[in-house]
Amino acid sequence: MLNLNRGNFQAHPFHLVSPSPWPMYTSISLLTLTTSAVLSFHGFDYAENNLLVGLTALVLSMAL
């Protein structure tokens, strides 16, 4: 194949998107949110601070 025709060539019949870090970031923030919520329900110290961190991270992942 010539280099001139390479731009019109499709190697596969589907569209590949570039990888994104947002699903991993969102899952970590959800894990932080649920873990800190359970810890705050059971009365652990400073669990409310972690709850706010997890909530803030989740809102940032939805906004960005």
From TrEMBL:
All copies of the Heme-copper oxidase subunit III family profile domain together span: 10-64
The entry's keywords: Membrane, Mitochondrion, Transmembrane, Transmembrane helix
Q: Where is the signal peptide?
A: none
Its membrane topology: Multi-pass membrane protein
Q: Supply the PROSITE patterns for this chain.
A: COX3
Record-level Gene Ontology MF annotations: cytochrome-c oxidase activity
Where it sits in the cell: the answer is: Membrane
Question: What is one Pfam family matched by this protein?
Answer: COX3
Got a GO cellular component term for this one? Answer: membrane
What is the similarity comment for this entry? Belongs to the cytochrome c oxidase subunit 3 family.
State what this protein does: Component of the cytochrome c oxidase, the last enzyme in the mitochondrial electron transport chain which drives oxidative phosphorylation. The respiratory chain contains 3 multisubunit complexes succinate dehydrogenase (complex II, CII), ubiquinol-cytochrome c oxidoreductase (cytochrome b-c1 complex, complex III, CIII) and cytochrome c oxidase (complex IV, CIV), that cooperate to transfer electrons derived from NADH and succinate to molecular oxygen, creating an electrochemical gradient over the inner membrane that drives transmembrane transport and the ATP synthase.
- Please give the name of this protein: Cytochrome c oxidase subunit 3
The scientific name of the source species is Lophiostoma macrostomum CBS 122681
Q: What is the lineage of its organism?
A: Eukaryota, Fungi, Dikarya, Ascomycota, Pezizomycotina
